[in-house]
Amino acid sequence: MRCVVTGAAGFIGSHLGEHLLEHGHDVVGIDCLTDYYEPRIKEANLGPLQGHPRFTLHREDLLTAPLPDLFAGADTVYHLAGQPGVRPSWGAHFADYAVRNVLATQRVLEAARSVELGKLVYASSSSVYGNAETYPTVETLRPQPVSPYGVTKLAGEHLCELYRMGFGVPTASLRLFTVYGPRQRPDMAFSRLVSAAVHGTRFELYGEGTQTRDFTFVADVVRAMSDVARSDFTGVANIGGGSRTSMNEVIDIVSGLAGSIEVHRLPTQRGDVRDTAADTRVAFEGFGYVPTVSLTEGLASMVEAERLAGVAA
């Protein structure tokens, strides 16, 4: 198969690219390496992909790239590119979110309807739910995002559904619940926590640590994306890790794996939701999704990767 991955240099995109190459697919990566965080980190993410005979990278902006040409002959487009981060999405920075999460997605969909695709997989977010009324949360619950970031991810979902219903573009929007693993963005909690534990620095925690999340290991997310692309499923589905855990419990797990951690507690930030938990029955029935990596196993892999990176440095 020929697969296109937007955001190929990112955390999830680079893992997905590796997975697809390992399974014999040709991969076309598109990424403009924005400066939301250090582009050199994204370049390092591309390390396992660069030089592979079945991988090509186009360093292009989705707003100006010749997408119909890049999508021509593709079986699947995985649309992972976008502007991440809940906390920075307020104020003047919202323009970046509107452009990179909404306008760019519309352009991807316009290109997709001009070619014959087997599937367009869109990386949505559990942020669309906001403070959900019930847990585990089902897809039919009314989304109520509490951050501008969540608003733009929901807008991307709505666009996918519009193009699916209006033009027959076979879209699958996966609402990803707090994805973690090696190469996680440096601003995210697990990345900062593991770094603090391994290197003996202070970890800054927003809130009291009683907030809970449905943490999902990146390999489970990648497998879900690959499986939904090969299935007949279209529409919207939750992808979660199968357990709801507080940040205090996570700190205890990482302390057991890597040593004690100095925690500096800060006020809860605007846009942070209190809890998340995914009901994944739609994904299970639609394409067989079952999370397989436990939180302790996933965190252990992050600790190991951080230690190896320290040795290499």
What would you call the structural class? alpha/beta
Strand order of the largest sheet: 3-2-1-4-5-6-11
The top level CATH class name? Alpha Beta
From the coordinates shown, what is the CATH architecture? 3-Layer(aba) Sandwich
At CATH level 3, the topology is: Rossmann fold
Mean pLDDT over the full residue set:
96
Major β-sheet annotation: 7 strands, parallel
- Uncertain stretches of 5 or more adjacent residues: none
Give the count of helical stretches: 10
Tell me the span between the first and last alpha carbons.
37 Å
Radius of gyration equals 19 Å
CATH superfamily: NAD(P)-binding Rossmann-like Domain
**What is the total number of structural domains?**
1
Shape: globular
- The topology string of helices and strands comes to EHEHEHEHEHEEHEEEHEEHEHH
Question: Which bin fits the share of residues in helices?
Answer: 25-40%
Strand elements, count:
13
> Which percent range describes the beta-strand content?
15-25%
Could you characterize the architecture of this molecule?
The protein is globular. The longest helix is centred in the middle third of the chain and has 20 residues, at 148-167. It is 40% helix and 18% strand. It has a single domain, classed as 3-Layer(aba) Sandwich (Rossmann fold). The protein is α/β, with parallel strands linked by helices and 313 residues long. The model has no long low-confidence stretch (mean pLDDT 96). It has a 7-stranded parallel sheet with strand order 3-2-1-4-5-6-11, with helices on both faces. Strands 7-10 form a two-stranded parallel ribbon. Strands 8-13 form a two-stranded parallel ribbon.
